[in-house]
Amino acid sequence: MTEEKNNLTTWQGILALSPIVIFLVFYLGVSLWVGDFYKVPVSVAFILAVVWAVLTTRGMGLAGRVDLFSRGAANGSVLYMIWIFILAGAFAALAKGIGAIDATVAFALQTLPAELIIPGIFVSACFISVSIGTSVGTVVALTPFATEIAGNIGVDTAFPVAVVIGGAFFGDNLSFISDTTIAATRSQDCRMSDKFRANILIALPAALLTLLVYIVISTMPATIQIPEGHNYALIIPYLVVIVTAAIGVNVLIVLMLGIVTSVAIALPCTDISVVDMLAAMGTGITGMGDLIVVTLLASGLLGLIKHNGGIHFIINWLTRHISGPRGAQGSIALLVSVVNVCTANNTIAIITVGELSKRIADGYGLRPRKVASILDTCSCIVQSILPYGAQALLAAGLSGLSPIAFVEYMYYPACLAIMVALSIIFRFPRPVTHRQA
Q1: H-helix segments, 1-134
Q2: How far is CA 377 from each of CA 173, 209, 217, 383, rounded to the nearest angstrom?
């Protein structure tokens, strides 16, 4: 990034960020106008934003701008995510086709009281995400189950899927092996154990409050439909996915194990042919097509925004006026949150603002563990509610819903945001600054 890009005028900065505004205004505006978030394809909204970003990028010809967009779309992390989408689509469709998900749902409904289904999904998501350190793996493991069970207990499908996403970010925020934990602690030169002790006093109360909300909501009467006549041997592929995810196996291997196990179990237990199973996998992969397109468009768009100086403009603008330790903490929280909106990746957001956050922390005597906690927690809050974040897009692809459908049910991120605000206002966990030590 050149010095010129680092010192943009207000107009240049607004222009650099305008593609995000174009996307949000068109997608949210038109959806609200027609009263239906399923009417407006996310991909169309992103195409308009990308066209605008390409037109407003200066200093190179059209071929250069398109190449810049393509390099942003085709980076390694994006292509890795697309592999996850492909395998997740194949496994979800195969598991559904052979009856594995239906059998799992039937087993859960027959063994658990209806009022414990939703709380149970949340606790399971929290446990798995803490174990594997990734929200994506948790979403892959539990979204098909949450989607299928929604109809049986008489709730909006988006509700249990949102429960999964919320629980997934509990572990993403706290786990010692989470990439956000590693990035946050390294950027602030603090031990993971110190950050965990500071973080747990914020995340655990938020999770317990969310769990209480789910328990209260789940006591409402529900129409329970318990399927019968399932072969419970078909649960094995789904158990393989959940268990291998919980012990920390790479998500790509988890999904491939799920596919192999599904085929191995289905051949002796069902009359479904190998050709039919392959057809189901093909349908699942094809169903991920729109999700893959949106991921590429969003990544390329964010690459153009970063090239045009939009990220640096935000950083400079948000750090101009800071006063006192509370103001410093609030600025760091807002900084990583806004950058996360622009990058749609919580780890990248932490890395981007980590060094500057450390300078702010040193200037106001903030404890590294508190700053690392703020960086990790706030980035996870934002990432969990972004309709163009990888987790929401993946959940949308697996459930067949709009990625905006989950936002109204995201209780855990709301509780977590409240806890972060309270921790800044009332300065806990103490000591917040070196002067308090």
Answers
A1: 3-6, 10-34, 42-56, 62-73, 76-98, 100-111, 117-132
A2: 6, 16, 26, 10
Q: Which position has the token pair 């009022």?
A: 115
Please tell me whether residue 366 adopts helix, strand or coil conformation: strand
Answer for the pair 132, 167: CB distance below 8 angstroms, yes or no.
no
Q: Residue 223, exposed/middle/buried by CB under 10 A (0-12, 13-18, 19+)?
A: exposed
Of the chain, the end-to-end C-alpha distance in Å amounts to 39
Three-state secondary-structure class, residue 433: strand
Question: Three-class SS of residue 288?
Answer: coil
Question: What's residue 225's pLDDT?
Answer: 58
CA angle 82, 86, 90 (to 5 degrees): 165
Structure tokens at 193: 């154990």
Cα separations in angstroms, 6 against 96, 312, 314, 334: 51, 6, 10, 19
DSSP state of 178: -
Token pair of 59 as six digits:
């200093």
| Range in 73-87, 210-224, 250-264, 266-280 the model is least confident about | 210-224
Q: In the prediction, which pLDDT does 437 show?
A: 43
Distance from the Cα of residue 67 to its chain's centroid: 28
Model confidence, pTM? 0.83
Q: Give, in degrees to the nearest 5, the angle at Cα 437 between 371 and 355.
A: 25
Task: Return d(Cα 167, Cα 391) in angstroms, integer.
Answer: 12
b/e code 332-341 from CB counts within 10 Å (16+ = b): bbebbbbbbb
